[in-house]
Amino acid sequence: MVDLSIERKAKGEKKVVAGLGGDASSEPARPESFRAVKDRLYSRIEGLDIAPDLGADIGSRRWFRGLGTFVGLSVVALAFWPDFAPLEAAPPLPDDQQVRSEYRSQMIMPLGLGADTGRRMGPTALVRPLAEAPERPQMQMLATLGRGDSLDRTLRRAGIGSAEADEVASLIGRAVPLDELEPGTQIDITLGRRPEPGATRPLERLSFRARFDLELKVDRMDGDGPLSLTRRIIRVDETPLRIRGTVGDSLYRSARAAGAPASAVQAYLKALGTQVNLQRDVRATDTFDMIVSHRRAATGERQAGQLLFAGLERGSRGAVQLMRWGSDGDFFDADGTGEEKGGLVAPVPGRMSSSYGMRRHPVLGYRRMHAGVDFRARHGTPIVAVTDGLVTGAGRMGGCGNAVRLRHANGVDTRYCHMSRIAVNRGASVRRGQVIGYVGSTGLSTGPHLHYEMYRGGKAVNPASVSFVTRKQLSGEELTRFRDALGTLRDVEEGAALADLTPTADEVASEEPEREIDKLDKPRPIG
Questions:
Q1: Per residue in 339-398, pLDDT tens?
Q2: Distance between CA atoms of 327 and 85, rounded to whole angstroms?
Q3: Could you tell me the pTM of the whole model?
Q4: What is the 3-state secondary structure (H, E, C) of 436-494?
Q5: Are 215 and 204 in contact (CB under 8 A)?
Q6: What's the CA gap between 256 and 234, in Å, rounded?
Q7: Which of 97, 199, 339, 484 is deepest in the core (most CB within 10 A)?
Q8: Phi, psi of 352 (to 5 degrees)
Q9: β-bridge partners, 208
């Protein structure tokens, strides 16, 4: 027999199952893997246009579909919004006197309201305010005189009544001028008990240091007596303080390390710089020598003043010796020669508006020589002398109007024109920087300004090309007195001013005996 199924398969025939219409020869399909299903699902989701851009294709079907998605998501979000019902809080404080008293006992309150360090930190209902709080029998305070303030205003701010403040100012004004009291003066004030509630406390005592050598005290002889002033003259020694040392790496630091005040060191460097080059001519092995005015009081206070002597010992290169002399405080060397000083560049504070040379005259209208320089300045601006000189002319001078002419050393003359007012007279001597007149517009002038001229040997020169240098020279009796004072200063011993003053017999007798209770505050020596 021949197997028909094999033959049919060879011929490609199909076997149809009745009722299913399927291929009887096909095998059942295998289930897809999870990975394949997931990949097909993700690819379909990526192809969906769920959230289109609402900023593009406005009005299209795609845009309206995106708007619907946005509105739907918003509705869902609002549906899950939390409720606005009030939240539960802590229960209120029980309305119980005992509980509230317990709470208050644990409160932290200021000491002024009855607080304490124990459990009862606040006042309870048993605490009753006093009808009248007792006051201290005395009040002690320290008042400081401010800059631009007066003594009576300072006393009133400290609590002294107006009548007593005026009386105290009058008493002190008899001993020392009130305008000489330096700002920062500290005043010890003691006020007594009030005579009645609301009244001003009376002054019991007041004391302060009016000067370095004077202490003033205002007090009462008895409780209700009048105020009286007591002067106490303090003995003061004015031995200058001499400081010497080696220059080392830094002249400034070495002088400060030796105990010289900063202001004295700066003055020393400034004075020394007029004689030597501080960078090139000062060596580390040189010795600096400075003498500073110094005062020491019998009460122990000390006060350093200005620099009196500036010296530098340089071995074979010669010594520098400078001493302050005269009312101007200038330094002179051992031969009585003063330091060089440059003259003022401009006689008025203003910029130059017209230079020296040929120009067209603003009033006359034609070209001519402008034998000076013009400075722009306001009407009434002070005009100063550019250097020391003698007034050889002061008055009306033709086209210059009101003018002043000065004669200086080495045949140099200067003239200042168009002044509104002249401040010097002919024949007077003027110093560098002294006011000689005021800016105006007199003479041939179109507005307020200063016309400044300079002549050498009678010929006009450009003032901008000349620089004045002045040097004083002592002579005669003044030179003798200068050398005597210099010798006295050089005999001052180094550190002699640092020793304490030995008290005199009167000072020892006037000292109050030391109380035993005051000895407790002193440190005890360790043996």
A1: 666 555 578 887 788 888 777 777 666 677 788 888 888 899 999 998 888 999 999 988
A2: 90
A3: 0.51
A4: EEEEECCCCCCCCEEEEEEEECCEEECHHHCCCEECCECCHHHHHHHHHHHHHHHCCCC
A5: no
A6: 30
A7: 339
A8: -75, 125
A9: 187, 216
